[in-house]
# Entry
Amino acid sequence: MSKLYGIKGVLNSIAIKPTVSPIDVKNKIINEFKRNAAIDANEVQVEIKENQVILKGKVRNWFEMQEAVNAAWSVPGVSSVNNQLRLKSLDKTIY
# Structure
């Protein structure tokens, strides 16, 4: 790259917008859940707000929670994942 005299810096403000629709993203995530035996797809709800995926519901263990988050991140068009999943074991009352 050659030097340009008089130029002190370049600011890149280009942002790429995903071309997938929120419905497509949600369906792809749900399909990922169904393919992954470690995730109980009936217990995890997926919401899409702009480019953010929100995961809600209850999972059996930390591994299932991480698998659900990883599945959400694996779908093209996802720019952030808000993990609101809870462990079922933490909801039980211990006597």
DSSP finds two helices and three strands in the chain. The chain has one domain: 22-91.
